[in-house]
């Protein structure tokens, strides 16, 4: 059994993963309501909440499973907020010392990278290794509040970053756009809700780096374009055009992600396509990436909604599926740890 611990930002989470059977349990304590009043994540508050939340979560885990010889403990050691990572590391080391079980450090982004394969394992734990190999080389897209990354997993399981954002991440652009529109944090899901009733072609917003030979994402110009558009609108215009604004703004984000994914898929040799990260919950994005995969006649693996955000299940699973990418007996953490 692998015990997963995640505390990179504002979610305190633990999970139990059995390589022979799949996920045995997941426990998450969200802090969203605590941070909404501040319009975003407050690092010191998040750290204090982890300090309060992990003891009861640990009791839940130990009630469901008493650690035994052969078990493994996996904890997020970056990237993330320093104070939050420190709290998770403290829990991991304490549990490791008390249970005499080995501890490994997992890169949070690698957890996202492998999270679409959790469902594949759940369907057939015994046959997972063969099915995983059949998916390689794999093109994956991580879309979250802090990261927008296209990456490749080669035949040997090695990860290579193909394209990254040069400024705002896609999720950050959605949240900042929502703030400009007067919506509370987190605003991305609220933009999606409004967009469902809007015309995505009502307003024209820019798509950065549309060229096939530019391996980058950029969303800061999109946010600026929205601000300029709002400066030209009265309060009445904004109220009347809110749904169309949200639909057009969201479409610009989704189109940029879909276009760059298609460019890399067409330029390389891949046997599967994946989508993960918090913004992977956006239905328009899920459908857009599914469409790209269908056009190339490739299987599309999209992380389950429960495993798109900060969760311990993907950390425990990564310790199983990506053991070579883990830190053995980690003694420190890295708030800026990159994917590869």
TrEMBL record:
Belongs to the KAE1 / TsaD family. It is an enzyme of class 2 (transferase). SUPFAM superfamilies: Actin-like ATPase domain (SSF53067). Required for the formation of a threonylcarbamoyl group on adenosine at position 37 (t(6)A37) in tRNAs that read codons beginning with adenine. Is involved in the transfer of the threonylcarbamoyl moiety of threonylcarbamoyl-AMP (TC-AMP) to the N6 group of A37, together with TsaE and TsaB. TsaD likely plays a direct catalytic role in this reaction. The keyword NADP does not apply. Signal peptide: none annotated. InterPro entries: ATPase_NBD (IPR043129), Gcp-like_dom (IPR000905), KAE1/TsaD (IPR017861), TsaD (IPR022450). It comes from Oceanipulchritudo coccoides. Fe cation binds at residues 108, 112, 310. It comes from the Bacteria. Keywords: Acyltransferase, Cytoplasm, Iron, Metal-binding, Transferase, tRNA processing. The gene is tsaD. This is tRNA N6-adenosine threonylcarbamoyltransferase. Its EC number is 2.3.1.234. GO terms for molecular function: iron ion binding; tRNA N(6)-L-threonylcarbamoyladenine synthase activity. One of its GO terms (biological process) is tRNA threonylcarbamoyladenosine modification. It catalyses: L-threonylcarbamoyladenylate + adenosine(37) in tRNA = N(6)-L-threonylcarbamoyladenosine(37) in tRNA + AMP + H(+). It is found in: Cytoplasm. Pfam families: TsaD (PF00814).
